[in-house]
Design brief:
This protein has 5 helices and 20 strands. The chain folds into 2 domains: about 180 residues, D-amino Acid Aminotransferase, Chain A, domain 1 (2-Layer Sandwich); about 90 residues, Nucleic acid-binding proteins (OB fold (Dihydrolipoamide Acetyltransferase, E2P)). The strands form 5 sheets. Strands 13, 14, 15, 16, 17 and 20 form a 6-stranded antiparallel sheet that branches. Strands 1-12-11-2-10 form a 5-stranded mixed sheet. The protein has a 5-stranded mixed sheet with strand order 4-3-5-8-9. The N and C termini lie far apart (about 50 Å). The longest helix is centred in the middle third of the chain and has 10 residues. By secondary structure, it is mostly beta strands.
Length: about 300
């Protein structure tokens, strides 16, 4: 049974490490800040599935133009992105992804179009998943770029330099892939590794929420015009020193935040914690915050 016929599968996933590296066994490419997607493309239509295998074709009608690039049945793996001044905007992509009304989707196509960034090809009239990645890249290179379809560029061996270059451009990070790796369906494999460009900053803890799993969610804020502005929350195990300190504090019902008034345990002591995150969202919240390893 081929991938084209049996679509009950999910994409190959990546493991994550903290530091870039150099290796002759790997290629390195940009990690785009988008939505993982698989495109089933024939000369007559395009079907789009997310990383969980759910069909999302109707959300992105402009990607139907990709069918003009193929003469055979092809499966591409990649990411759907919204480009703003040449840089992926996750906030703009979220706006598109949440649209359900056909009229609003069509308006979004004009005002906030998406592009599919292809980094792998899994099928071309036959399954290619057991071919080495570097050979699959050769297959992928045959397809021309267009307004709706672009291919990732990769560099062999020098991952550290690629990472530093993309970090200076404030992009999300890089992906390292073994050049001889096969495509492991529905697997989180160490043959593919993501290294994210995490930002690190100290935030004031204005309170907390109690969770069910022996942890709390710290409510984080920054001082802005002499007021404490809420920017998000981060989970901390009750065993962490910062959690122990916070849980000992006297709590209040009144929120210290200018923009967050939900029911919580609020504190007055200006404890701070160090948090890693990808970026600030368009509404000023932290994206993917996580407590640093050490308090």
């Amino acid at each position: 049974m081929s991938l084209w016929v049996d679509r009950n599968w999910q994409v190959m996933l990546l493991k994550e490490i903290n530091k870039p590296f150099d290796s002759k066994d790997y290629l390195f490419e940009a990690k785009y800040d988008g939505m993982r997607a698989v495109l089933f493309v024939s000369p007559s239509e395009v079907e789009i599935y997310n990383r969980h295998g759910l069909e999302i074709t109707k959300k992105f009608p402009e990607l139907q133009n990709i069918k003009t690039l193929v003469q055979k049945n092809v499966i591409f793996d990649g990411e759907i992105v919204c480009l703003e001044n040449g840089v992926p905007s996750f906030a703009n992509l979220q706006k598109r992804a949440h649209l359900k009304n056909e009229m609003k989707i069509n308006y979004g196509v004009v005002k906030n179009p998406v592009t599919f960034v292809a980094f792998d090809i899994l099928y071309e009239n036959q399954d290619l998943i057991n071919y080495a990645l570097i050979k699959r890249k050769k297959y992928l290179e045959k397809y021309p770029d267009s307004d709706e379809f672009i291919k990732t560029h990769y560099i062999l061996e020098f991952g550290t330099k690629v990472y530093e270059t993309l970090k200076n451009l404030n992009l999300e990070g890089i992906v390292a892939k073994k050049i001889d790796s096969v495509y492991e369906l529905t697997t989180r494999s160490d043959a593919w590794i993501k290294i994210k460009n995490w930002q690190r900053e100290s935030f004031i803890i204005g309170g907390y929420l109690k969770n069910k799993n022996n942890s709390i969610s710290l409510l984080l804020g920054i001082k802005e015009n002499e007021k404490l502005k809420y920017v998000g929350k981060v989970t901390a195990s009750n065993k962490r020193e910062i959690a122990k300190k916070v849980l000992k504090e006297k709590t209040f019902k009144k929120s210290p935040f200018s923009n967050y008034q939900e029911k919580a345990f609020y504190i007055k002591n200006n404890f701070q914690c160090l948090v890693e995150f990808i970026c600030y969202t368009s509404n000023g919240s932290l994206r993917q915050p996580k407590l640093c390893e050490y308090d």
